[in-house]
Amino acid sequence: MYQFSYAEVQQDAVADSKDRERQVLDKSIRMLEEAKEHGPKSRESIEALFFVNRVWVRFIEDLGSPENELEQELRANLISIGIWILRETEKIRSGESQNYEGIIDISSIIRDGLK
């Protein structure tokens, strides 16, 4: 039988969470790239913006949770980034902007920081 220490199990859980977050950000980046190609009124854009909103609302909720173990300054910075992304997706949706690239760049930086 295998026996693992609590620290090992917890470390694996954190690694799994980071991997899932990377995968979700990868998917959002791919969807935004496709949306950028098809334009802001396309089905691809609608689906990408909806997905990105769901991801960032969830990230912001998690970052605001007292159980989140990231340092407070980093959490605050990520929440600010998330709010910016939500505003940018709304601007794209309403036809005020086509700043897919800005959202893609920021998402890529955050994804790469999870490695």
What are the defining features of this structure?
115 residues; mainly alpha; 4 helices; 79% helix; 0% strand; globular
Helices and strands in order, then pairings?
Blueprint: H1 6-38, H2 43-64, H3 72-93, H4 100-113
Textual characterization of the structure:
The model is unreliable at 4-10 (pLDDT under 50). The longest helix is centred in the N-terminal third of the chain and has 33 residues, at 6-38. This protein has helices spanning 6-38, 43-64, 72-93, 100-113. The protein has four helices and no strands. Helix 1 runs antiparallel to helix 2, helix 1 runs antiparallel to helix 4 (100-113) and helix 2 (43-64) packs antiparallel against helix 3. The chain is an all-alpha fold and 115 residues long. The radius of gyration is 16 Å and the shape is globular.
Radius of gyration: 16 Å
**Mean pLDDT over the full residue set:** 90
Measure the end-to-end span. 31 Å
Q: Treating each run of at least 4 consecutive H or I residues as one helix, how many helices?
A: 4
Which class of secondary structure composition applies to the elements?
mainly alpha
What composes the largest sheet? Answer: none
Shape: globular
Order of helices and strands: HHHH
In what range is the share of β-strand residues?
under 5%
Stretches where pLDDT falls below 50 for ≥5 residues? 4-10
Number of strands: 0
Helix content: over 70%
